[in-house]
Amino acid sequence: MKKFLIIGANAAGLSAASKIKRIDKDAEVTVLEKSGFISYGSCGLPYFVAGIAKRVEDLYHFTPESIKEKRGIDVLIHTEAQRIDKEKRIVYAIKDGKEVEFEYDKLLVSTGASPIKIPFPGVDLFGIFQMRLVEDGIAMKNYIEENRPKRAVIVGGGYIGLEFAETFGHLGIDVTIVEKLPTILSTFDPEIVELVKETLKNHNVKIYEDETVMKFEGKGKVEKVITDKREIEADLVLLSIGVRPNTGLLKDIGVELGEKGAILVNKKMETNLPHIYAAGDCATVYHMVWEKDKFYPLGPGANKGGRVAGSNMAGVPDEFQGIVGTAIFKTFDMEVAKQV
Q1: Residue 318 pLDDT more than 90?
Q2: Rounded CA gap, 131 and 128, in Å?
Q3: 3-113+243-327 adopts what CATH topology?
């Protein structure tokens, strides 16, 4: 019986695991997940923090127990892969403080991406958050309930920042967005950006563009954001300045990297290393408009790439034809979309 090992139990990883089991119901499929939750969408986190999604259970589709029962997939949470021996085909991981070995015939790395954290002075003050994991949403929700912040500063004017502008506004918190670039939503057409800005201002969101955060100040808890142009009072800060692919496991064993350091894969989701595949936010995807491999960390590409990887791992040839760069988000009463 072949052993299939997957690192990462979210969109790409579980799509691959499910595809393998559909092709071969007797396959041994094990998924390692370093966090405590699986099968969730980060897009739901603003609505959980806002209280629109009432329970943390509303954020995820499966638990390790339910996916084992329904699909026969073994998922181990709080299990962090540390290194890969590509010659012996062994992944070494830490679980419960002990090193555990996992053998594989085929390996998928779907480790996702992590928020960029610039080492501003004061960045570790209480009340400063990043948002990626379910645990991040729980921590922010608890902080808001316990501290009742009145002024939030969002560093970064991209999708996540603007979605959380609505979240904080919904909770009655004053919102300020600080964007280093000349405009928020820098990849959108100017006409669309102006409509979004009008919506934000109609909801009393302050926007400071072409402005750089220098440091954070406070006594134990954040109290001020200092930029190159002003001081802004704040008792809650969200850093949303982009993400970087999590590639350390493969970078150290000779994997070829692509745009922004993402793992370079072909249309079968194969890396340049034998028996090792990659998919999701840690890997590149082929962009059909640009006609080249791009780093595009969004859910649709992760789900599709995971399914293609799983099919090829299980011996059924398939190719991911690529993406066209579609993205959509919502802020207040405006839904915004783009392509390319």
Answers
A1: yes
A2: 10
A3: FAD/NAD(P)-binding domain (3.50.50)
d(CA 271, CA 277): 5
Nearest to 271 by CA among 288, 253, 287, 289: 253
| 236 DSSP β-pair partners | 152
Tell me the whole-structure pTM to 2 decimals. 0.95
Per-residue pLDDT band for 245 (boundaries 50, 70, 90) equals: very high
Q: How many angstroms separate the CA atoms of 269 and 283, rounded?
A: 9
The alpha carbon torsion through 137, 138, 141, 143 (nearest 10 deg) reads: -110
CA distance 244 to 260: 7
Give the distance from CA 338 to its chain's centroid.
19
Domain boundaries, the chain: 3-113+243-327, 117-241
Report the C-alpha gap between 261 and 255 in whole angstroms: 11
Report the pLDDT value the prediction gives residue 179, as an integer from 0 to 100.
98
Catalytic-role residue among 2, 3, 24, 43:
43
Query: Is 43 labeled as catalytic in the residue annotation?
Result: yes
CA distances from 44 to 14, 62, 330 (A): 18, 15, 12
**pLDDT for the residue numbered 340:** 77
Query: What is the architecture of the domain spanning 117-241?
Result: 3-Layer(bba) Sandwich (3.50)
Mean predicted lDDT score pLDDT of the chain = 96
Mean pLDDT, to the nearest integer, of 261-278? 98
Give the per-residue pLDDT at 138: 97
Contact (CB, 8 A) for 20 and 120: no
